[in-house]
Each structure stands twice: as C-alpha cells, then as structure tokens.
Amino acid sequence: MAASIGAWLVPVVVLAIFYLVLFPNDLSQLQSALAPCSDGSPVATAASELTKTAAAAEDVDFRVFFGVVTRADFYERRALLRMAYALQPRPRRAVIDVRFVMCRLDKEEDAVLVALEIITHGDILVLNCTENMNDGKTYEYFSSLPRLFAGEPYDYAGKIDDDTYYRLEALADTLRGKARRDMWHGFLNPCHVSPERQYMSGMGYIVSWDVAEWIAASPELREDHEGHEDKAFGRWLRRGGRGKNVYGEEPRMYDYLDREMYADVNCFRHELVPDTVAVHKLKDRLKWARTLRFFNATDALKPSKMYHVDLTPKI
Ligand SMILES: *[C@@H]1O[C@H](CO)[C@@H](O)[C@H](O)[C@H]1NC(C)=O
Ligand SMILES: *[C@@H]1O[C@H](CO)[C@@H](O)[C@H](O)[C@H]1NC(C)=O
Q1: Are the C-beta atoms of 64 and 154 separated by less than 8 Å?
Q2: How remote is the CA of residue 127 from the centroid of ligand 1, in Å?
C-alpha cells in the first residue's frame, strides 16, 4: 500500500518541480492575487496592491500613503501616472501606496466614470471638499488620513502634485535613514534663503504620520489659508512647532528642463539626472515621454512583428 502511494507520488512531485522551475513567477503572482485587499477595493490586480502584498511578505521598514492630489476630470493624467508608477521597480523593504486624491464628484459624468476607475483600480480617495474651495483641500486631505487609517496607520503621508514624477525606489532609499517622527521632506522653497522663510514646494512633500495626526487635532488650521497653500502649510508647521526634522532634497528634486525650453538652469531647475528623487512641471505629454524614456521605462518593450517603435530622441 505504502509503496503504491509512493510510486504514485513520484510523478506528481516531478511535475511540481518542473512547474516551479519553468514558471517561478506564476506562483508569486498567484499568491499576490489571492491576498486580500486591506482597503476593501474589489480588484486585487492594481499595481499598487501587488506592491503592497508582495512587500508584506518581506521585512517592511515603513509604509507611505502617497496621495497624488488631482482633479476628477484629469483622466488622461491619472492613466499616465498609474502606468508610470506600475512600471517602476518595487521599492525594497518599503510600501508606497500610490493613491489619487480628489474632491467630491459633483458632476454626473465624473461620478460614473470615477466609480468605474475605483472598481477597476481601487486607488482613489474622494475627500469631502469642492475644487474651488480656497485651500480647504490641503487641510481636508491631511486631517482625513488619521481617521481613515486609524486601524492601520502609515508611517508617512505624502501630498504629491499631479505634474510630478517620483522614482519610488529612490524615495524609499532616501526616507529610510530619516526621522520617523516630527518629519518633513521635500524641496525647500525658495531655495537658498534663510530657513525660516522656506517651506516645502508643492511639487511634493512627505510628513510623518504624527504630523498628520496633529493637523487632524487642530481644526483652527482650516481657517488659516492665506496666500499660497503650500506656504500656508509651512506656516502651520512652524507656528505649531511641528515637522522640525526638515529634509530638503535639492538637487535630487527639481523642475524639468530640456534644451528646447527657453529657461535657464538655476537652483530649482536643471536637466534630468540619474539619481533623481522627483521631477516636477511635467506639464505636457512630450515632457512626460522624455522623462519616462530617460528613466528607462521603455526598456521593457519587447521586439515583436506586431509593431515597430522608434524610441530615439528627436532632440
Ligand atoms: C461634507 O461637508 C458638508 C459641509 O461641510 C457637510 O454638510 C456634509 O454632511 C459632509 N458630507 C459627508 C458625506 O460627510
Ligand atoms: C538607462 O539604461 C542605460 C543603458 O542600460 C544606462 O546606461 C542608464 O544609466 C540608465 N538610466 C538610468 C536613469 O538609470
């Protein structure tokens, strides 16, 4: 009896080993797809969810809620950003959840179309604000996070512009050595002035979760939105004595520049460099295309008889 079970097992084991050798990736994809989504989104295949579940299996040093603040009707930009982040290598030992943040879906078409995006991708946060609200959005965003993720707080919260491209692995590596509390990371603006006049540029900034909790517990900040929203944010933190661990990422965060533009290199603008953390002012498709090609996003294109694509730069 035992011998006959053994004889029956041998081909099964051989087959299993064959399968593992030939299709090792299928197994990990299977595991990722089966893992439940913690935020209740129905589709588990969104790239950020794959990142999340795969990273959960390893040691995770920290988790970032990476909120790209955008408008409901910016469908094309969102499609581009989603693709750009999905194609990036996964950060090591860090979870960076890319989410799109927008105000209430007041238009009929936005309600329906964004609902479809949520069903498909599960990566959208809708705040209770209106687009024309004078900076209520920044307060609404940061103050809503501690409540939304009370059960599973992140280590950091980022507010990211939708014309900025971050390299998530470079971001994770630079955050790894930095303070986990009372922390504020981004590009110090205006550059090269005294620190008390500086605040983090709206291209993107990241605060530790305790700072978001402090904002949520300070409703009086909601009324303090004089002037530029990111400048106002800087005023909140300075007056409140928060975010004292300040990290300016110049020159690895900067505004986009190429040779066709009538603009000069300065302390906040230069051409693309390999060790970039974030590049800002990607205002049109050509700038996005050149940026993504520079960072080798197109390397994954496989030769095929189905197409011929000439990727050589035209400048
Ligand atoms: C959104 O905010 C408005 C005004 O601040 C409030 O009346 C309304 O109840 C809020 N809606 C939700 C769903 O919380
Ligand atoms: C892109 O790939 C090329 C060729 O492999 C390499 O020389 C270059 O450093 C890469 N660029 C970046 C930004 O990593």
Answers
A1: yes
A2: 10
pLDDT in tens, 89-101: 999 999 999 999 9
Quick one: CA dihedral 16, 20, 22, 27, positive or negative?
positive
**Strand duo 204-208 + 183-186: pairing:** antiparallel
Contacts of 209 (CB under 8 A, 6+ apart): 145, 146, 153, 154, 155, 156, 157
Non-local CB neighbours of 62 within 8 Å, separated by 6+ positions = 94, 95, 155, 156, 175, 176, 180
Ligand 1 centre to CA of 229 (Å) is 22
Determine the Cα–Cα distance for residues 186 and 207; give it in Å rounded to an integer: 9
Per-residue pLDDT reduced to its tens digit, 168-209: 999 999 999 999 999 999 999 999 999 999 999 999 999 999
Pocket test for ligand 2, best of 165, 168, 296 (most atoms within 8 A of CB): 296
Q: Report the C-alpha dihedral over residues 113, 118, 123, 124, rounded to 10 degrees.
A: 60
Q: Which ligand is nearest to the CA of 292?
A: 2
What is each CA distance from 177 to 72, 172, 262, 295, in whole angstroms? 35, 9, 38, 24
